[in-house]
Amino acid sequence: MEASVVFHKGKDGKVNRITLKQNGNHPGTRVNTQEAPAIDPAQFAGRYYSPELETIYTIAKKGDALKLVHVHHGEVDLTVAGKDKLNAPWWFIQNIEVVRNAAGAVSGIKVSNGRVMNLWFTKLPDDFAGNGK
To answer: Which of the listed residues 74, 84, 105, 126 has the most CB atoms within 10 Å of its CB?
Structure first.
């Protein structure tokens, strides 16, 4: 199947539209790119508890990497996918949505994969488990 692309220049000489010719004409319009906001991965660090699973996952910044850590599953690298979105490579945890309270502080996460949507994990206080300090 043959395909071709036609680039359409505006009066200013810039290409603002294209047409893909394959099984008919499929027009496209240039969109303006936006600079992604700087995201500090350290803001996600903490321990998160799921009452439903009765387990704790930790998000930790190690060097330049953001890690998801579990006592039985080990650790994996997390990818920052957006302002409050993280991705993990495990089949049982793939997408993490960070939830904030009214003051903007992280209060928990919602975890999803192909079978589970928005499984709630509460962010534990930093002094949880009686560090005694």
So the answer is: 84
